[in-house]
Amino acid sequence: MTRPEEKKRPTHLGFLTALGDPARGVIGGFLVLNLVGRPTEFHCTAPVRPNRAQEILYGATLEGFLCGEQIAQALVGRTKTELAAILTNNPNILTAGNSLKAPLAMVFRRSASCATPGDEEKYAVWEEKTGRNAPFGGNAARDRRIDDENWTSEEAREGESNSQRRSFFYDAFERTPPTPGVDYSAWRTVAKGRNRLALPTDFVGSDGRAVGVDEISARLDLFFKSIDSVEPFERIRLAVEEAQKSG
Known about the structure:
Blueprint: H1 4-7, E1 12-21, E2 25-34, E3 39-44, H2 52-58, H3 62-76, E4 85-88, E5 104-108, H4 119-130, H5 140-143, E6 145-146, H6 153-157, E7 168-169, E8 187-192, E9 195-200, E10 202-204, E11 210-212, H7 213-221, H8 231-246
């Protein structure tokens, strides 16, 4: 039986990510699900590319600017739905912070299930064939894990057409590269369902109302009876790819 206080909590959850990199264009995707995991809204952006002046002036803060200030705010601003929270797998989106209309949390894969055998080899093949680093730079096999166990060496050889836009998941803040402007010490890591999330210790919405970490955690408990916190990001990736084909 639903407790009285649960009835007052928002009944929709947002999933927000950015795929790609500044050189080829960053594409944002935003999916809103109800309590049983059915989509009620989906929005995505055209590829966002900085101009040369922005690359020079923003420096190391460029990806946080593109993902957090441009993409995140634009996508979330389109929804009229009251959201319990917004989940992301991209640390650059965390720069949006309190500028969004709902608490922003980050999703991690459980450590034991982060890697699949042969990841190092698959990334090495892809990087050798394309001459590029894996998505968002760095050694992705070391620093992040792809949420797709079927990324074979053959698919890797296809290059950026699919691989560049695949979702990724870090397994802990300790293994997440620093994002300028984001203080990771202000977040609390909790287990939710099959995975782990980092929740802000407090959130102040656009209406000025503060939401503490315990309330954010309680809101999320309503959803993880039916929803896996990782799976919706794969839906976003596939939907973005379809939108790019038809666009």
